[in-house]
Amino acid sequence: MTAPERPDWSETGFRHIWLPYSQMKTAPRPYEAVRTEGVRVHLADGRILIDGVSSWWTACHGYNHPHIREAVERQLARMPHVMLGGLVHEPALTLARRLAALLPGDLNRVFFSESGSVSVEIAMKMAIQFWLNRGVRGRSRFVSFRHGYHGDTTGAMSVCDPDEGMHALFHGILPAQHVVDLPQDDAAFEAFDRFLGGRAETIAGVILEPLVQAAGGMKFHAPAALARIAATCRRHDVLLILDEIATGFGRTGSLFACEQADVCPDIITLSKALTGGTMPLAATVASDRVYDGFLSDRPDHALMHGPTFTGNPLACAAADASLDLFEREPRLAQARRIEAQLADGLKGCAGLPGVVDVRCRGAIGVVQLDRVPDLNALRQRFVEEGVWVRPFADVVYLMPPLVIGEDDLGTLTAAVCRVVSEWSGRR
Ligand SMILES: Cc1ncc(COP(=O)(O)O)c(C=O)c1O
After folding, report:
1. 115-129 tens-digit pLDDT
2. CA of 212 to the centre of ligand 1 (A)
3. 33, 132, 210, 384: which one has the fewest Cβ atoms less than 10 Å from its Cβ?
């Protein structure tokens, strides 16, 4: 069978692009996407794939939602961008007000950037400077957890799992942090308490993805573990940064994962589904206590950070429209329905030789395998099945748009069961 012809723009442009997470010498040629609609991705060769990934977990309302599209079009006609230095505008201030109202506790001050990694850098910088502004020196390190992933910029890389977090090569070059096992039982919590208590005066903050450590292996922990980590931070007066870049906006069944543990961090980071997956935007949101630590008659106590596109009006308009959809449409109920269907639809994988675990939390379904020698072959099989599913490391997972219907989700889970059972039979 001859391969379908590629569009001209692909033939001429491909040799000039450098793609993310790719060994460009050996990576298979990517598929050309030409259109997205609802939960479907259309390819240039005419195939249409049901999306099980939500474009790296962003497209919570599906693609091309008319309400977001119209909001962005209106904003584009009026003011696509203006600097936030010395000027403010309605989309950013409205979004900041609405986020503060939705977030738990006194997370009231919103600092905008354009990517999750940068929002983590800002959170780390805020935490370090919070202590410096109080005249406390030496609190410059962070505690993070094995299997954590917080982004690809230098500071964010330093708090990722050094082995699972894709940055092992940079051992010894990144700032040294404390990456510890996430405590899950009494003995581990006592050890964590001793660990934090023993060096609290050197620690600026603890950073954690609440309930689901996503890109570091799709590991789950219980709300009770999150609550105990938060209590330990409070006991030793260490700032708690929760990275809800992946878990925020309904993915785990509540608007924010930390709500399930009744925990309010000192700083929270948001991105991905913030704009419903339409525009790059991130937010680092500080509690009143952290924010107040920057108020001073001294100019050098200000947070000296300001990405050029901070608070971009188009992105903020998209995020405002996305929040409308969370208000008007039953996204959280949809996430819970997806959880039930994922649990049922993936249970056929449990017990297959080579399947280590099958687990679901909110609109996240995970089949963990013992080893995947050829990820690319597995990925290709999913496309042949008419679905967009991208296993990584040792996990095959589904994080579909929250609006996905029962039939489409059934197609996704059936494809996972078929491909995993084939893989299991061959290993
Ligand atoms: C929890 C978490 N934090 C940070 C990031 C980095 O975000 P970005 O890719 O937008 O820089 C990610 C991305 O997957 C993430 O899942």
Report:
1. 999 999 999 999 999
2. 13
3. 384
